[in-house]
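Hello Y.,

Per our agreement to keep a running log of every chain we model this quarter, I'm adding this entry. I've kept the format consistent with earlier entries: sequence first, then predicted structure.
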Amino acid sequence: MKTKEFQIQLSEAMKIFHLSGIEGNEGKFEIEYRRADGNFGTKKNVIRRAGKIKPESSILNKEKTDFENRRAGKLRLIDSEGQAFDIWICLWRSINGKLINHKY
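Predicted structure for the entry above:
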C-alpha cells in the first residue's frame, strides 16, 4: 500500500481557511476529515463560519473562558447546504485534495 505524501503544511491550510469568506475572495474549498467512528468524510464547497459567537450566559468571566476553551482547536464551517458544523483541526486531513502535514 502506497502512502500519500504531504502536499501542504498546516499553516498554509489555515491561511486558506482564514481567507475564506473575506470580501473579494469567494473562498470555497473542499475538505476531508476523520469522523468520530474512524471513517473519512468529505465536504465540498465549504466556507469559514465568521463572526463572534457569544456564550449562552456570559455573566462571569469564568463562563466565557470555559466557552472559549470548548471552541479551541476547532474549525467553524458552513457547507454548501448552509449547515453549520465544526471539526477538530487535528482530524482535518486534506484541503482541496492536498494532504495536510500537521507536524510543526
